[in-house]
Amino acid sequence: MDSRSGAAAFPRAAEAPAHTGVWRFTVAPVDVSVPEARHAVRDLLVRRSAPLSHDALDGALLIVSELVTNAVRHAALLTPRIGVEVTLDARRLRLAVEDGHPYRPKALHADPDGQGTGGRGLLLVQATALGAGGDCGVDATSTGGKVVWAALPLDLAR
């Protein structure tokens, strides 16, 4: 018992780190939404003191830029709003972008001749996520669209 109040003293459950949570916002399927989403995610991660190195933060912002760019370029006709979700848990950062297009993209192989100027965004996302020890993927939504996501480990030594 707690001698001050006479109430039984129970051990406190382990509290989640202060940086954890899930945040969602939407952007219009237009080009100016790419920097808008990138800045919103950067500001959120800084405000939440997410334990990310400078390189990991840069990688996360590259991922957001590429995923929102793909949604703007390839899904705008079927997507009135692009959804962006940022999830921070005790061990990782997950970035997800949802659109209304049913096509499930696959990372394209780089053009061996080096002549192509597009089609490498998902390769960048995949390389950034896997290179940091994370993962990436595509999931179907219940409404026929998709969520393209990438997860990065947090720098727990910080």
TrEMBL record:
InterPro entries: Anti-sigma-factor_SerPK, HATPase_C_sf, HATPase_dom. GO terms for molecular function: ATP binding; protein serine/threonine kinase activity. CDD domains: HATPase_RsbW-like (cd16936). Transmembrane segments: none annotated. Residues 33-127 form the Histidine kinase/HSP90-like ATPase domain. Keywords: ATP-binding, Kinase, Nucleotide-binding, Serine/threonine-protein kinase, Transferase. It holds the Pfam family HATPase_c_2. PANTHER family: ANTI-SIGMA-F FACTOR RSBW, ANTI-SIGMA-F FACTOR RSBW-RELATED. This is ATP-binding protein. It comes from Streptomyces radicis.
